[in-house]
Amino acid sequence: MKRTIKLGLGAALALSVSATAVLAENVKIAFIDPLSGPFATTGTNGLAEFQFAAEELVNKKGGVLGGTNFEVIGLDNKMDGKESLINLQVAIDQGVHYIVQGNSSGIAHALTEAVNKHNRRNPDSQVLFLNYSAVDPALTNEKCNFWHFRFDANADIKMDALTDVIVQNDAINKVYLIGQDYSFGKAVAAAAERDLGAKKNTVEIVGNELHPIGKVKDFTPYARKIVASGADAVITGNWGSDMVGLGKAIIEAGFKGPIYTYYAASNGITRTFGEAGAGTINLVGEGSINPSSSPEVDEYIAAFEAKYPDHDIAQPRIVNVIRMLAMAIDEAGTATDVAKVASALEGMEADNFWGGKIKMREQDHQAIQDVYVMQQTAGVKHTLDNSEFGLETVVKVENASADMPTTCEMERP
């Protein structure tokens, strides 16, 4: 049966015999994330970032292996685990050796298990899973495997940085935890409880609840409970439309304290919060752009925004995925023997495009890099979401949690 693959931002290309021959010359990377539904904005933005990085940082610089280009193929998983596994098989059927995914750790768990199983059974068509945003710590701990690499700081690493900032603020004595009801939301809550208790046991957690992911239409009841709790600060791992809805409801309910987040940037979030989010919305992540680390970064952001005026550099780690994959392929001397590429990638140390260094830790395939706590503000050079607001770095944590232990016991081929 012939299949049609979605390419670009919603464009469709039916692969003919002649087209397949041309595409076979490229290193194909399948992007498996939501391109429709309530989280489509996050997915289409990520796809744009991947396609731009591949073109600007690999293809325009001569490609890999002496002239082979990267091609990023968008596959819509509709934020569904079963659909993601179908997309994985579609990608494999089209000769794809590299998949990227990041939205939902639950889906990441399904993909990493499927990839591991496929590679054991099919040594001639093996696949690498390059995880750019699914941050459940289990993925590089008890669920680790050789074929999975994570380029984002995991939930524990980010919470370690966030709680360092929180415990230094004497005005914060009560904290409310709220998140989406799946593996990542649970990991954020567990990390917050652990780290706050260890660093400042006088901080009281006055609420800890989870809500259905992508299904809450009105967060007002949650916001009222937060205000009624007397919380001085809120911590949430919400992303996409759930971050927009929760944050807006909290602010409109009259909450005045800081809101500490993992994913409160762009995609309708920054503009929605606007002036109310200035000095209130805080985000922990990799890749500071205000200030930026170099003129090259400024030029890259400007070029991206010129090509994609309705999108932002919301996930800087995507650039590191593309650059480090290209380095690994060139070092391995092959793009099809993914075991060799994986061996080149693990332990790799590289210049982080956004400043500092990045290392893919060999024992668990967790990227170690600088992590930043940033705050929404006006008057910065690089704004988000077609608004006057952007994120400005407040605290930089160098090589965040580089010594954090792992329970990973990796089996190598």
From TrEMBL:
<dbReference type="InterPro" id="IPR051010">
    <property type="entry name" value="BCAA_transport"/>
</dbReference>
<feature type="signal peptide">
    <location>
        <begin position="1"/>
        <end position="24"/>
    </location>
</feature>
<keyword id="KW-0029">Amino-acid transport</keyword>
<dbReference type="InterPro" id="IPR028082">
    <property type="entry name" value="Peripla_BP_I"/>
</dbReference>
<protein>
    <submittedName>
        <fullName>Branched-chain amino acid ABC transporter substrate-binding protein</fullName>
    </submittedName>
</protein>
<feature type="domain" description="Leucine-binding protein">
    <location>
        <begin position="27"/>
        <end position="377"/>
    </location>
</feature>
<dbReference type="Pfam" id="PF13458">
    <property type="entry name" value="Peripla_BP_6"/>
</dbReference>
<keyword id="KW-0813">Transport</keyword>
<dbReference type="InterPro" id="IPR028081">
    <property type="entry name" value="Leu-bd"/>
</dbReference>
<comment type="similarity">
    <text>Belongs to the leucine-binding protein family.</text>
</comment>
<keyword id="KW-0732">Signal</keyword>
